[in-house]
Amino acid sequence: MKKVVMSTALGFLMAGVFTSCGNNGGSTGGSNSGDSATGTATDTANASTPGIHQADWGESDGKKVYLYTLTNNNGVQVKISNYGGTITSWVTPDKTGSKSSIVLGFNELAGYLAHPPYFGATVGRYGNRIAKGKFTLNGKEYTLATNDGQNHLHGGKKGFDKVVWEAAALKNDQPSLTLNYTSVDGEEGYPGNLRVTVTFTLTNDNELNIDYNAETDKATPVNLTNHSYFNLTGDITNTILDHSLMIDADKYTPVDSTLIPTGQLQPVKGTPFDFTKATKVGARIEQVKGGYDHNWVLNRKGNDLQMVATLSDEKSGRTLQVYTTEPGLQFYSGNFLNGSIKTSDGKPINQHTAMCLETQHFPNSPNQPNFPTTILQPGQKYHTTTKYKVILNK
Ligand code: BGC
Q1: Model confidence band, residue 10 (pLDDT cutoffs 50, 70, 90)
Q2: How many domains does the chain have?
Q3: I need a labelling partner for 135 at 20 to 30 A (CA). Which of 32, 36, 192, 297 fits?
Q4: Which residue among 118, 329, 349 has the greatest number of ligand 1 atoms within 8 angstroms of its CB, and so is best to mutate?
């Protein structure tokens, strides 16, 4: 796990140009830096102006929920809610100039309150599975909420995807949104009060940077990720089976029947898990029981941000590049989507119509001493970064 001093990141944001735009009197829902914001406000009537725009989006747990629209100089727009730290849409042009969202999401908060499978959410305290919801730390056994058969998945029954985050800072110039959430000692069974800060930044190079920081007062597992479902055609009636995927990984972590890694790091060579050269998602998916839902052991070395995967769709001309500081990538091919959930305009979300590329530490690491550690100690700073970048091939 990469840990660096985080004070600079927050200090930088606080020195930036803030706006408390929106139609709600400018409250960002917290007593933090957003309220004392000064600077240029974006045009509240027009969310398409470059910068960040805040709009009321409802309520959950008695707290106000907002939808933030980040717009860059190219007119590319990313919408993020403080409910679950959720990316609800990412509108980019295709090669003909026609605009559509490349991620799955709803127009209304109600869609998320019905608990879809983590559409666009910030996932934590531990992204992915912990076997039987148990782990032992400093001689003490901890029992977590189980919400995926016998296992703990994506932070438990009410993970970070289902809570209202505090919008701590909004910045116009290179639009960015900083969200804070404090997960209390014992929440979902985890030890320690964990203070989490996630910053989303949309650049003029059509990159979405996600920067994760956390601190704890007791040793605890932490594994934060984003759960966006991509369909680069921008049309949910198409599957992602024709998308070409490259993952820079020579190994993956095979799993048991409950999707818990066996602990081995297996070579991908000669298997349907070999994406070292760009290959269509659908080319060998039939050979993988249930479809892809595995963690790849990235070849990346060191702590810096490196490109680890690319996803391309020839039809739209869009390519998504994935950069991360993390050692692993969960590629989930939307296997459990079955048409029962509908988009805001009533289209069924069928199997393999969207896929996730979740940057992370490996699943079940707290029970696998041979995997890179996910334990954050008091006094340490958790810091990871993931960047998704959209490129247009004409
Ligand atoms: C998991 C899948 C799960 C999906 C939605 C993915 O990260 O790997 O097994 O079904 O999230 O919960």
Answers
A1: very low
A2: 1
A3: 297
A4: 118
